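for the writeup, i need someone to sanity check this before i put it in the appendix. the sequnce is what the collaborator sent (i think, or maybe the updated version? ugh). structure was predicted straight from it, no edits. if anything looks off just tell me and ill rerun, i have time this weekend
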Amino acid sequence: MAYELYYWPGIQGRGEFVRLALEEAGAEYVDVARGPGGVAAMQRLMDGAAAAQPPFAPPFLKDGDVLIAQTANILLYLGRRLGLAPREEAARLWAHQLQLTIADVVDEAHDTHHPIASSLYYEDQREEARRRAGDFIANRIPKYLGYFERVLERNPGGERHLVGRRTSYCDLSLFQLVAGLRYAFPRAMARLGPGFPRVGGLADRVAARPRVAAYLRSPRRIAFNEQGIFRRYPELDGGN
């Protein structure tokens, strides 16, 4: 039975982290909301009309009778099933911890263009966004990428992966984070990126993996755009 992934059509968003895991594993899945009636089906699950334990928001995944929400939680569930997580409990929890840290920086990236409220348009908070983005570039991107650089350097399994000796869902998610930052802040990342060669190298290796590369070339990969988490507003990409 195919996995059913529920996420808003037209944007990568947080659903992309789940898509990458499914694509890398060659798993059969349906991106439900991109099909006829899919958004309505997704909303019925969120409203509780079709689920006893409704999710708060997408992404969520349906696997038979199992319904799981929250990106990191979905990947924790899929990791062992798809061969993208370690078998040992301590290592699985470490991978989950890294995924939660990636979720933190993704939230901060979103808040560079919506620092006051998601319900307001970007144009309603432009000046606040400029200040928030300046701090994100100067302080937060280096802090997070520096952390992942150290994790790669200290991984007992080798610096080609975040966890162990094999590609995990964390590697795929770090690729997506770097790709998003490169899209949203090209000038800043051109300057900052060389300072984190292990992170950049991992992102480039993931992009070159056969199934990931095929996915990135396919119509299933929604392009970055100014409706998603990572948005390119040149006035926010000061590079300093």
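Residues 126-154 form the longest helix (29 residues). The two ends are 49 Å apart (CA to CA).
thx in advance!!
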